[in-house]
Protein: precorrin-2 dehydrogenase
Amino acid sequence: MLIVPEELPDGGGAFLIAWQLTGKRVLVVGGGEVSSGRIRNVLIADALVTLIAPADSLHPSTRFFVDHSDRVTYHSRLFAGQDDLEDVDMVLTAIDDVEESRRICSLCRERRIPVNAADIPPLCDFYFGSQVRRGPLQVLISTNGNGPKLANIIKTKIEAALPSNVGRAVENVGVLRSKLREIAPGTGGDVSKRRMQWMSKVCTSWTLDELADMDAAKMDELLSVGWPENRTLARSSHKNDSTKNLCGFLASGRLRSASCGFAIGVCVTLAMSKKEQHGRRSPSEWLEHASKARLA
Amino acid sequence: MLIVPEELPDGGGAFLIAWQLTGKRVLVVGGGEVSSGRIRNVLIADALVTLIAPADSLHPSTRFFVDHSDRVTYHSRLFAGQDDLEDVDMVLTAIDDVEESRRICSLCRERRIPVNAADIPPLCDFYFGSQVRRGPLQVLISTNGNGPKLANIIKTKIEAALPSNVGRAVENVGVLRSKLREIAPGTGGDVSKRRMQWMSKVCTSWTLDELADMDAAKMDELLSVGWPENRTLARSSHKNDSTKNLCGFLASGRLRSASCGFAIGVCVTLAMSKKEQHGRRSPSEWLEHASKARLA
Structure:
C-alpha cells in the first residue's frame, strides 16, 4: 500500500541524527562544567578527545576524565590557532570569551569542521538536548532552543515510560540480528528484505519483556526452527495479554480503589441495616423506599 | 554542589545531536520511498533540497514533494560526479547501486561533506532513528543499529507518555524566553544566569498543562510582576496537586474499579442481610460470629 503525504511538513525543526564518532578526533576547548558534560557525551560515542584548557580552569569532573580516560589527550593552555585544528573531526567550545569562540568557529567553518559553541546558538552547526541512555538505546529530547529545563522535565517523563529492561531487549535483538546475518548473509536484494521482515515479525510478536529475557538457547531455537519456517515461536499473544492485564491490575492502584469501594459499600449497607433495626426498615425496603421517593 | 563522576561512561553509543539545516543545501540522490522519508525530515529542518533521480524511479511521496515544495530543486537524471557536490552542505543517498553509493561517499569524504548512505552503515557519518515531533519538541530514538523495528515500538511507548499539549507548552516557554530576553537583554554574565534560573523556576513550578494554557496576558503578568520580584506566580502547588490527583482519579479506570468494589460490597452485605432474615443473624452478628470463629 502506498501512502502519499497530503501536505508538506511544518518547518522550524532540526535534523535529529546519531553522529558516528568511533575513532574520530574531537577537540574540546575549555575545561569547565559544561565542557565535562561534552566530554562525557563524546566518550559515550567512542571518540578520541583532545582537551585544551588551562589547568587552573578545570572542573573536577573534567579533571576526572583527564586523569582516568586513555581516550583524552590534555594540553594545559589556551587555544593557539589553526594548528590546533589539524586532523580534527569536530570542535566543541565551552569558554566564557565570546570573541574567541567566534574566531574558533570561523576557523572551523573554513575547514568544514562541524562546531558547537556553548551558549552561542547562531554559531553552532548542531545543538544538544536532554538524553536518555539504556545500554544501546539512546533517546535525544530537543526543544529546539525553546527550553532546556523543559527538555529535562520531558526526559523524566520518557524515562518513567521506558520499561527497566528495554536496554537488554535492544541488546538481544541486536545479537539475534548479527547471528541471523551469519546464517543468512548477503547485502541488498531478497535475502536482506526477508531478514528484515522476519526480524520485524519477531520484534512485534514478542513482548519487550520476552525479548529482554531471551537467552542464547532461545535464540538458537529461533534461528534453527523459526527462521527456516518463517515463524517467530512467540508464546500465544492472547494468553500473554490476559496474564499481563491481570498483573497490571494487581500492580496498579485499581485493586486498592476496588477494595476501598468494597469496604465503603459494606459499611454503608451495614449502617443502613443498623438504621433498619431502629427504624423498622430492612436494607431492601430502604432501597425500595428510595426508588419510590425518586419516582415521586 | 560539585558532582564528580565516579566512573567513565560506557562507550558503544553515538553522539546524538540536533543538526541545524536552515538555509543549508542538502543533496538527495535517489527518488524511492526511503528517499521521500529523508526529504520529509530535512524539510522539517528548513533545508534547501536538491534531488537527483530519474523521473521513472520517483515514489509518489517523492513526486509529491517535487510538485509541492518550493524548497526542492529536482533534476531527472543520475548522479553525475563531483560537480553535483558544489555548494552542498550534506548528502543523503538512497539508491540500490552499492558501488555508486561508495563512490559518492568517497567524493563527499574528500570534501568533508557529511554523508549518509541508506543501508550501508559503515559508509555513514551519521545514522537516523525513529522520531517523534510535537511542534517545537523533537525526540530521536536510536537503537544504534540494533533494531529499527524496536525503535519504532519504543517510539510508540514514548508517544503515549507525552501529554497531548506538550508541544504547546514548549512553544509557550520559548515565547516567554524571547520576551524575557527583550526586557532583560545581554549575553553571558549575571543577567544571563539570572534569566536561566528564573526560567528554570517557572518550568518546574508550573505544570505542563499550565504552561500549555499560558496566554499572552499571563505571560505579561509573569514578566512585569514575577520577574522583577523573582517569583513564578505559580498556583499553590499543593492545591494544584490535589486537583490534579482528583482529575486523574476521575479520568482513570480507578473510579470504575472503586464503583465495582462498592457495588459488590453492597450486594454481599445485602445477601448476608437476607440470610439473616432467614437464619436469624444480623449482619453485625454475622461479623461478630466470623471474628469469633477466626479467633477460635
Remarks:
- Residues 54 and 77 of chain B are 4 Å apart (CA to CA).
- The beta strands of chain B are 15-19, 25-29, 48-52, 72-75, 90-93, 115-117, 126-127, 130-134, 137-142.
- Chain B touches chain A through 115 residues (CB under 8 Å).
